[in-house]
Amino acid sequence: MLTIQRALVALCAAAVAAQAQAQDFGDPENGAEVFQLCSGCHEVGRGAENGIGPHLNGIFGRKAASVAGDYRYSEDLQRAGADGLVWHLDTLDAYLENPKALVTGTRMSFSGLDDPQERADVLAYLRQFSDDPQNIPEADPTARAPEVELSPATLEIVGDPAYGEYLSSECTTCHQRDGRDEGIPSIVGWPEEDFVVAMHAYKQKVRPHPVMQMMARRLTDEEIAALAAYFKEVE
To answer: Which residues contact 11 (CB under 8 A, 6 or more apart)?
Structure first.
């Protein structure tokens, strides 16, 4: 009986210590709210997939630029991973604060989170989706609601990359063809559906950028699909 009581006491103490550690680390519930700033590019949770950015399941302890599959990282992030950059609490915190200060040529266009508490909360939230250190089963995926509802016919248009290249000159007066992000987000290597949805969001004035709205209004559905097919393949 005494042994069972001691075991229960030990379990309670461990639970209290874990709760205290989580509180010191950050608030995952608030982190889920702050993560909405990231969810346009990143997914996390059961069924999460690579999109504009890589999925973030198992991010803690993962070498930079090492997600399996066909996700195309920037050369600078690949180089950082090869040089030994691993995503731990300190490196993730630095990257969230100012991505380009840690990896100069990263394709991530997010400018960073200045508030250290918000960074701690986001990391507490992401920590729930890592096997190490908490080994918590992955929850339902973070919802990434479409910015605009498009018909299946629009999404099924097969774009012609050659035609997209012909149309791309206006895009590349601002967006860098080599994928560099110099104050203007990279559009190289995007999944085609993400590109199409984004352009239609500008066309419908859901995304509030007057220049992009003007550019998108001039494009047909077929032209948007062609640009999507081209920029996905740009090396």
So the answer is: none
Please name every residue paired with 86 in a beta bridge, in sequence order, or none if there are none.
63
Q: Which residue type, as a one-letter code, is found at position 148?
A: V
160 and 86, same structural domain?
no
Quick one: pLDDT band at residue 16, thresholds 50, 70, 90?
very low
| φ, ψ at 219 (rounded to 5°) | -100, 140
Is the pLDDT assigned to residue 86 strictly greater than 70?
yes
Closest CA to 229 of 165, 177, 146: 165
Q: Domain count for the chain, please give it.
A: 2
Domain of residue 173, residue span: 152-233
DSSP string, 160-193: -HHHHHHHTTTGGGTS-TT---SSS---TT--HH
> What is the structure's pLDDT at 117?
95
> Contact 155/163 with Cβ under 8 angstroms?
no
Rounded Cα distance, 134 and 216, in Å:
45
- The residue written with tokens 């180089």 in the block is 79
- CA gap 185, 180 in Å, rounded: 8
**Tokens (6 digits) for 56:** 């973030």
**Whole-number pLDDT of residue 204:** 95
CATH of the domain at 221: 1.10.760.10
